[in-house]
Design goal:
The complex is a heterotrimer of chains A (355), B (77) and C (259). Chain B is of the alpha+beta class and 77 residues long. Helix content of chain B is 13%, strand content 29%. Chain B has a single domain, classed as Alpha-Beta Plaits (2-Layer Sandwich). Chain C has one domain: Thiamin diphosphate (ThDP)-binding fold, Pyr/PP domains (Rossmann fold), CATH 3.40.50. The radius of gyration of chain C is 18 Å and the shape is globular. The mean pLDDT of chain C is 96. Classes of the chains: A alpha/beta (355), B alpha+beta (77), C alpha/beta (259). Chains in contact: A-C, B-C.
């Protein structure tokens, strides 16, 4: 087993390192800020590793190239940022419908429209509700540190093939551009047999395989949707979250990604002042860690959800704790850049609020 | 004798075959198939005129036609 | 099925095995069946059936995988060349082709086809041009001829309002990554034979690793042209070919292709 290697890299680079460690063989990119480090890095690194890099003509094309590679059972990835991810939704819907594994990275930037190139969590709904047309879900992993950007990208590939489903890694401009030390843990080699039961490789002497999402025959689409529903339900076991100083906390601050990280600093400061507050940071946004939140609500704790948007994940928090508690909300507008101090006052206010 | 067989279940009665037959023996029959198409046929009295050229099969969009060509007799007819 | 050959007979024409033994959903006189057969015959003759991955498109030919018994993936509307790029880059040893109509390829998928060709992807594209959106009910296509009536240009396509019909074989032939680009028609035996020859070259530039191959096939859509199959066939000769000339627009197959 190779030794752990320590490197000092950006979140964007960590995603690329993670992909290579996971055995990603094809990368399809298109330039958009703030994720350009990923295709730039991959244009050399993946080719050096014996893989393929294509700078596509558009995000639409990049996502459809990913569809083609995924249908062949090849580990492949694309990365983009919000406006680009909107364009990828067509292919993501098709991949979900035809059960094609793929990894899509979104370094969330400000919107709506062209927005800005700074951080935002405005794509929470888009990420967790499918994002494109039709009734489907993608697994959504939300790293909060550069280390997690590496680890969760590795994990994203395993999950994509485990469930034959697109997996989203949802970061933001902060995570993408931030440099931190990262331990590159060695990964197992991808077995040559991965996807052998369904992947396209030319029919040879067996029966032809068709990977498609069109089901026109009577009852066929309903059956496919039933099958997908059961698959999405089976993903519940993948749920992951960070719980920080919650045992004696009166207030649970719920925040994900970079905002979870900033909230953690605010909580540390408030703890030093004797405030009984803790952090609940969902790491999987789909599946959402609602059982763990409900448990905290049953214990009589109060809730405050903080997001870098106008309030999206707070809906899931409220659903998770419904009938037991409510969650206050504090939103930072995309376009503004929050500091830990910005969160202290809203946290104290929520702590004082009657349950 | 060269000959063709028309799979009447596949024939859609488009009659493109009738436009390319060099000896003009393909015509619309009076029969309908299960799909409701009036199928093509070789006029019964013209059956021995088929040259086995395959033109009808080449233009048939429905792969409804199979063609057999008679081997050329040795030493000429 | 057809009876076997008897004494002193040879089987001169039969369905290749890769073409499914089932009636198609196409309308009478539609040329998709001819195009399917040519592709099936060539894959068989070239020994490619077992290693082919087919990328199907959106339009009347969406059910191609029901008629050609090959490994297949269904692409979103217009995106087949991008999907084929992903397939070929993943499996460079497989034979990869797309089969697209004129709405799919020349309208919504214009960026994908142009860049796939321009990159010189080692894939082959079969482009069926019947000047109309067939499956959705006969709307105007980018290839609809001037004056041609469709459900969205009921007065006939007008140059001032809707522009000129787009000539794809010429456009693709003008791109750096293209090794072979040609146009044939499926309206008579001579043209069908030429179509097969062009398709063979387009497939060969892929199997030889030379680059991108493209064949446009002028085809009839009697239903949406509101013509009998025989009349529709004649229209290809009298109206389509004068505007969409047949022939080869680029052929570097004898020159080692592009880098």
């Amino acid at each position: 087993m190779a030794k752990n290697k320590r490197v000092f890299i950006k979140g964007n680079e960590a995603v690329a390192y993670g992909a290579l460690a996971a055995g990603c063989r094809c990368f399809f990119g298109y330039p958009i800020t703030p994720q350009n480090d990923i295709p730039e890095f991959m244009s050399k690194a993946i080719v050096d590793a014996g893989g393929e890099f294509v700078q596509a003509e558009s995000e639409v094309a990049a996502a459809n190239m990913l569809l083609g590679a995924g249908a062949c059972g090849i580990r492949a990835m694309t990365s983009s940022s919000s406006p680009g991810v909107s364009l990828k939704q067509e292919a993501i819907s098709y991949m979900a419908g035809s059960e094609i594994p793929a990894v899509i990275v979104n370094m969330n930037r400000g919107g709506p429209g062209l927005g800005d190139i700074g951080p935002s969590q405005g794509d929470y709904y888009q990420s967790t509700r499918g994002g494109g047309h039709g009734d489907y879900r993608t697994l959504v992993l939300a790293p909060g540190t550069v280390q997690e950007a590496y680890d969760l990208t590795v994990k994203a590939f395993d999950l994509a093939f485990k469930y034959r489903n697109p997996v989203l890694v949802l970061g933001d401009a902060i995570l993408g551009q931030m440099k931190e030390p990262v331990t590159l843990t060695p990964t197992a080699k991808v077995p040559a047999s991965e996807g052998k039961a369904w992947r396209l490789e030319g029919k040879g002497k067996r029966k032809p395989r068709i990977i498609k999402s069109l089901f026109l025959e009577d009852g066929a689409l309903a059956a496919q949707n039933r099958h997908l529903e059961a698959k999405y339900a089976s993903m519940a076991g993948e749920v992951a979250c960070e719980q920080f100083q919650l045992k004696d906390a009166d207030l649970v601050v719920v925040a994900y990604g970079s905002i979870g990280r900033i909230a953690k600093t605010a909580i540390r400061k408030l703890r030093a002042k004797g405030k009984k507050v803790g952090l609940f940071r969902p790491i999987t946004l789909y599946p959402f860690p609602d059982a763990a939140l409900a448990k905290l609500a049953k214990a009589g704790k109060k809730f405050l959800t903080i997001e870098h948007n106008l309030g999206q994940m707070v809906d899931d928090v409220r659903l998770a704790i419904r009938g037991l508690a409510d969650s206050a909300f504090f939103g930072v507008y995309p376009g503004d850049m929050p500091a830990p101090e910005d969160f202290e006052e809203p946290i104290v206010k929520a702590l004082r609020r009657k349950a | 004798m060269s000959r063709i067989a028309i799979d009447e279940a596949r024939c859609k009665g488009c009659l493109l075959c009738t436009t390319v037959c060099p000896v003009g023996i393909l015509v619309q029959s009076p029969r309908f198939n299960q799909q409701g198409y009036k199928v093509a046929e070789v006029r019964p009295e013209d059956r021995d005129k088929c040259t086995g050229c395959t033109s009808c099969a080449l233009i048939c969009p429905d792969l409804a036609i199979t063609v057999w060509r008679s081997k050329k007799p040795k030493g000429g007819a | 099925m057809s009876p076997a050959a008897v004494k002193d007979e040879i089987l001169a024409f039969d369905r290749p095995e890769v073409v499914a033994d089932r009636a198609t959903h196409y309308c009478p006189g539609c040329h998709h069946g001819v195009a399917h057969r040519l592709v099936g015959e060539l894959l068989t003759e070239m020994g490619l059936v077992d290693k082919t991955i087919m990328v199907t498109a959106i339009g009347c030919s969406v059910f191609l995988y029901n008629y050609l018994l090959l490994d297949a993936v269904e692409a979103p509307h217009g995106r087949a060349p991008a999907v084929a790029t992903g397939v070929k880059r993943s499996r460079p040893d497989n034979f990869v082709f797309t089969y697209q109509g004129d709405g799919d390829l020349a309208s919504i998928g214009l960026a994908e086809i142009v860049h796939c060709a321009n990159r010189g992807e080692r894939v082959s594209v079969v482009f069926v041009n019947n000047t109309v959106y067939g499956m959705t009910g006969g709307q105007m296509a980018p290839t609809t001829l001037i004056g041609q009536k469709t459900t969205t240009c009921p007065g006939g396509r007008c140059r001032e309002r809707e522009g000129m019909p787009i000539k794809m074989a010429e456009i693709i032939g003008g791109l750096g990554g293209t090794v072979f680009a040609a146009r044939a028609a499926l309206n008579n035996v001579k043209n069908i034979r030429q179509a097969k020859k062009f398709l063979k070259t387009a497939f060969e530039v892929q199997t030889k690793g030379l680059g991108f191959g493209f064949v446009e096939l002028l085809s009839a859509c009697p239903t949406n042209w509101k013509m009998s199959p025989v009349k529709a066939n004649q229209r290809i000769e009298t109206e389509m070919i004068p505007y969409f000339p047949l022939g080869i627009f680029k052929d570097l197959s004898g020159e080692g292709g592009v880098c």
